[in-house]
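Entry type: protein chain
Record version: 2
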Amino acid sequence: MNASKLKLELRIDWSEIDLFGHVNNLAILKYVQAARVNYLEIIGLMQIQSNTKIGPILASATCQFRKPLFYPGQVMVYSNVNSIKNTSFIIQHEIRNDKSEIVAEAQDVIVLYDFDKNTKRILPDEIKYKIMEMQRIISDNQMEPSL
């Protein structure tokens, strides 16, 4: 299960609990953000941004909340890229509780952006290759690498 996705495991914090006794939806979006940044670091996009005025931006984010998540516990975010285009790619996230039940599903559209010119940039072949290689490694090795 989830062998073709990058896994990020996080601890649920008491401060993430809302008035109704479950993890607030905003906290789930923060888990997705952590997984997104984890993926971008692994493929090298965060390093590009630190060296140039070009970097990834979040163009779109959607999330479908399936069931409540409770404290205490762990949350696992499984991420994979399912579409690569000229200037963007899509990261799918599956958020699971420590019983491996799906609690939410999210999708991020990442665009490479030139902050000096305020315009989209074409994804370099090197980044496309790193994304495809990451997906191949995860799939071939039946592994769930994480930072």
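Comment: The chain has one domain: 6-136.
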